Amino acid sequence: MARTTNLADVLLRATLSLPGTGRQLTASYIVLVLAVVVVVVVVVVVVVVVVVVVVVVVAVVVLVVVVVAVSISYVVASAVAL
Predict the structure, then answer these.
(1) What whole-number distance in Å separates Cα of residue 47 and Cα of residue 75?
(2) Is the dihedral of CA 78, 79, 81, 82 positive or negative?
(3) Is the pLDDT of residue 42 over 90?
(4) Would you say 15 and 21 are in contact if contact means Cβ atoms under 8 Å apart?
(5) Which of 14, 27, 48, 81 has the fewest Cβ atoms within 10 Å of its own Cβ atom?
(6) CA torsion angle for 70, 72, 75, 77 (degrees, to 10)?
(7) How many CA atoms lie within 13 A of 8 on its CB side?
């Protein structure tokens, strides 16, 4: 049991003593987290832009329909008045 523990300890120390291993892993995790954050932010921005565009398009369509309806009602009212 002692030999197995010592061998595992030696392997662990050898792995940790490799130059830059811990830093490279930490840097890769940081890069991965930053990439995920950037992707999430881009997706949120795209969704917000799409929602704003849809709302503006719907508002313009409603405005056009209201203007056309009011114009038609004025035309009908003036035709009836004649």
Answers:
(1) 42
(2) positive
(3) yes
(4) yes
(5) 81
(6) -70
(7) 5
